[in-house]
Amino acid sequence: MPESVDSDTQPDPIGHPSIVSNECLSIVLAAVGLVISLAAAWTAFDNEIGVRSPPIDVRLVATDASAAEKDYPPGQLGEAIRLGETLVNETNKHPLTKSLVGNSLSCTSCHLDAGRHPEAASFIGVAAAYPAYSPREKSVITLEDRIANCFIRSQNGSRPKNGSEALVAIAAYITWLSEGTPIRMNPAKPLGPNHMVILAEPKQRPSIERGQTLYEDRCAFCHGDNGSGSDDGPPVWGDDSFNDGAGLTGIPKMASWLKVAMPLDDTDLTDQESFDIAAYVNSHDRPKFRGTQPNNDANNTRNPTTNEADK
């Protein structure tokens, strides 16, 4: 008769005894059960408070062309989107748009990371807001219209024709960044889901004097003492900057943009500091808007400023 084997000692497939005590087995099973219980508890907690991180969309965080290219659609549509992204980054240099730009700014000068930045004038989701009523134009406009208006305001240039290769390409790129965003038409103004929130008025009136001190300390290294820009930052006033019809000439809008965008990669300005810098930057001369559309933007109520720090 074969030799009996007790429950604590079982032969392994090649004949060696495998020693697994009931006590050890109980400990292992208890540990596995604890891990499963903790995972289930965390999942329930995660769902309850709603903090589960969404899957990362590589397209929206890509920092180089090769990474973004993986998600371009095939064929002519993908080529148009690729061209649109290039134009956003090289608006003032690309042959298709260079003649339409009247300064050294590109779209990405304000729409950071080619519009991928989630807060600084983000393009993500914008296409889902158009067509929309524009209080500035006092009419319903398309996404192409909105892009064209940036050429005559922020880029102090000429308006591209609707349906032109450049406008179609940029609109295709913005629409690509908006894939999956529910359409939400706003009867009051065109606002995408990631639109920039305008800051509340600060406790102290914006001060040009305080703003100058802050600008010299935090901004001049990249944008120049005279605001003319450098290799590290675009001009922020003067003949080579945006004209006085651009949205950022409004102190609240400029302050709100500074709060989420500057200093680049180290956004630590307070609301008050953002307003003070905006007041200083916008106290300087810049080109006049040459268009025939209204020069006032509903978002751009201009705050009064003081040249001296409030007491």
Automatic annotation (TrEMBL):
Positions with biased composition (Polar residues): 292-311
Positions of the UniProt region annotated as Disordered: 284-311
EC number(s) per entry: 1.8.2.-
InterPro entries (UniProt xref): Cyt_c-like_dom, Cyt_c-like_dom_sf, Cytochrome_c-type_DH
Keywords: Heme, Iron, Metal-binding, Oxidoreductase
Recorded coiled-coil stretches: none
Keyword Protein transport: no
Domain Cytochrome c per the UniProt entry, residue ranges: 206-285
Pfam families the UniProt entry points to: Cytochrome_CBB3, SoxA-TsdA_cyt-c
GO terms, molecular function: electron transfer activity; heme binding; metal ion binding; oxidoreductase activity
Protein name (record): SoxAX cytochrome complex subunit A
